[in-house]
Amino acid sequence: MSSNVTNKIKETFQVDIVGDQQFDWGEQHWLQLDPGNAELQPTVSVATVYPGAEQLSHMHSGFTEIIIGLEGETTHWCNERKIKLDKGKVGYVREGSQHRIVNTSQQQSSFLSVVYSTIPKPLKEVISSWDIELSEVAKLINLDAIVEKFAQSVQMTVTLIDTAGNFLTDKENLPEICQCCMQGKSGDCILNTATVERPMEQRIFHCKFGVSAIQSPFIINGRVLGYLGCGYGRLSTNITQVEPISDKFAADSAQEAYFKLNFIHRNHLNSVAETLSLVSASLIQLMINSLKEKELSDYRINLSQEREKQALLHHSLSQARLKFLESQVNPHFLFNTLNTIAQQAEMDGASKLASLTYSLSNLLRLSLGKADSLVTIEEELSYIKDYLFIQQTRFPKKFTVTISIEPEILEIKIPFMTIMVLIENSILHGFKDVRREGKLVIRGYKEGPCGVIEVQDNGCGIPDNIVAAVRELPNHEYDPPSLKGIGIKNIFLRLKHYYGELFEFTISRSKTGGTLARIVLPL
């Protein structure tokens, strides 16, 4: 039946057949469309399905297939999608799906298969000034582990050898027939240390014992470093005779070992070949990058030491500036003076004035030296209360304050004056020109693995352009003029400095009026 099918294909399509495979369910013949541009054309074949035969479910890994009915009728299953393919009808099988074929009729059917690889094209060339030995680089990038992962992903045996024939992967993974061939040194592939032609480009190689494999060379600066091999299976279901491998491995034993090989479909082997080409090029680039990394390590160490010196110099300069400021305004003199005023006010019966002075003294004492530090929420609340006392004295009956902070939130650390700035914005901007009594609510509570801090008021509501500007703050180059003068961007930048990406900061306008500022931090 195969010769009849072959003659009919040649007569119909007027092209040569470059390969074929025989299966229990039928046969498949691959066409050579344009011998001069093999890399630019898809893989095209004619598949014939015998009457009442079925091709079992198989994975389409690395390629998409277009199918066109030629004669008879076949039923194709693409996962759960059913395709009835008769003459002239077109269907497709997507990459990554399970494909199954059934011919329930009493006559043979055939269809045209057009396969396109979904594997990205590999790098065309690699430029390097290094003389690289594959065995040395393999240790740098843990190459054997990478190769093992690749073997698992394509479900094929994979080998890696250098130009001297030394294995960089476990040769025990090879099938029995290959191991016996290597022991007898009778093979004609690159796994043998004998003088064998060393290919300079990737190829699908069929050895004299019927084993098919892909051989992909590692080439840098025109020099072959080694070979990545993949496959080591058989493309045919029936072979007449396998020649004896050695005196200890006769023809019958060789035949038996041959049929133990995994069966490989030609389309799968072609898609793996393209994948292997990409993997080889990527590994070459990885090798070069590893060597660059090794060469630059001393430079990085020196650069790191230089930056450390600069950081120490900058810190010393900052300390000198702080000492200069402290020498201009002695904080002890300031605190003593405020306490003297407060005591005198108490003696004169001006208790309100005394309380205000004490609150101001506490604010100055707590704030001095903490501008660039983290404080606990409990610590920040201590001077918030003094600040609120001063503001409520300044604006009597203007607003009321409710503070509700859960105990586990009090130990969270935040940049100094984070909550204070939000409260100040509510009082100075939110309650401005509002005749009703203002209500300021400060909440702190646990939400999953995070702590939430909220400052909410019932004031005039934050403008929409500021809400939009806060939303865009994660954009590093965004510098909205609408946020100048209200401290919002400063809060965001300081939170980002200490917490990186592990925080949320949002401001929204309530539907009923007022503003809600919300900060979420890890506990």
Automatic annotation (TrEMBL):
Official protein name in the record: Histidine kinase
Pfam families per UniProt: Cupin_2, His_kinase, PocR
SUPFAM superfamilies in alphabetical order: ATPase domain of HSP90 chaperone/DNA topoisomerase II/histidine kinase (SSF55874), RmlC-like cupins (SSF51182)
PocR domain sequence ranges: 142-286
Domain spans labelled Signal transduction histidine kinase internal region: 320-399
Organismal lineage: Bacteria, Bacillati, Bacillota, Negativicutes, Selenomonadales
Domain Cupin type-2: 46-115
